[in-house]
Amino acid sequence: MPSAARRFPHALLLLVIVGSALLLTLAQAPSAPAATGRVTNGATVTAEAYAARWTAIAALVGSSEKDARLGQFCGGTFVSATEVVTAAHCVFDDEDVIIFQDGDHVSYFNFTSTGDPKELQVLGGRRVLSDADGVRLNVSHVLINPRYDPRTSRYDSAVIVLKDPVPTGSGITFMPPIEAGSDAAWGAGGGIAAGANGPFIAGWGYRWLPNQSFLFTGANHTPTHRPKNPKVPASSSNARSGTAAKAAPAGKSSRSVANGLEEAALPIVSDRACDVGGAGAGLGYGRDFDPSTMVCAGTLDTSDANDEGAVTNGVDSCYGDSGGPLMVTTAAGPRLVGIVSFGEGCATRDTYGVYTRVAAMRPFLAGNHGMPVANKKAPKVLGTPSTGSTLHCAKGTWTGAGPIRYSYRWVRSFENDSSNDEYGIYERVPGSYLGGKYKVKYADRGSLIRCIVIAKGASSTKAVVSAFAKVPGRVPGAPVPSSSEGSDEGGEDFSLSTFGH
What is the distance between the alpha carbons of residues 176 and 178, in angstroms, rounded to a whole number? Predict the structure, then answer.
């Protein structure tokens, strides 16, 4: 799994064009306000409040970390005995992205790739992370919404499928997604005030925006990471007790990571308020907020801006809450209406917390959650790579739910161009088609030819790049090598390399 990914700051990823290569990195971007994901100015959840509201909440933990406090990196919601809903960015594998450049058009593959499910466990039935109750459940596989876009955070949702059903007696209950037709009951774009039935959020993240020096990945829109050794709360003097969550009054909040679950009641704000920001000052998310897939919630900071010691009195989720629930209590019981997604800071003056709008995720949440497509034997380029010959793309061996359909892309690079290996960027061979064959041209001399296989199954899609086949000869237009350097004209054997993905 990606290491402890948190709420995203919302903006586009860094796109840098160097010559003809599009350089994209999902882990680096220019400076901007850091994003966030734990309950700021909430109340510590009592045993009574936990039993009443939060027995469906889950903590995502690294399987190699025995200490749940150190291993917890995101939240989730048990929606059934075998499935947990979380944010896509919590489980997204940014190192698996393939960028296919076709002239001015760029396509991205593997935005739905996840890390190794063996590295992830789901902790349920536990309110205080340092306690020993509850169960840690192994994961069968993880599926990311096929429409997820990490550049914009649209459709930021994923389903974790458990290896075994939740055991009886674990204390875990299930919180279904909000039903179709009931969206208006909780705002549906117009907002809804906080009340006895919510909306509520909960999580084990930060109570206040942490020191950005150790969380900052420099992002406009990249994951932020919790430190490996988070501070242990010195005391619970700042916790607010009570059996019901409430919007917290102004006051200093701890800068530590939560051990006990924290909750808050908070309003869902209108789409317009999320767009324009605090007091309509035009400092909101603007076009970065997509009302069809996102919803905003929280209250803004109104503390004295002239007081350097002022601490936010707003209510929001923060680092470590990503993937956790935004829920309301309906006549039918608690319902999941949002997933903690991203934000700029925690409880700031201008921007609210942004949540994935669960109502828009219904097709995905109700879809096929079978085993994802996986490549067991890598694709391979077959044939003699010389001018006029035909290369064939052997697709390799694949597994996954349902029938698998395959499509192909042919790409090339040159030995002095390492961008594809460093950044996962591949340029289409001019004149190539989407089929599994390619006829080598004179212009391909000296190039490295690969094929990309895109496999689409019933529940997911995966793209894999083959090793290269080197076309002999001098690159057209390149200087003629001196006699001391020798010549590579003609007769070079076909070779495969361990390059590629």
Answer: 6
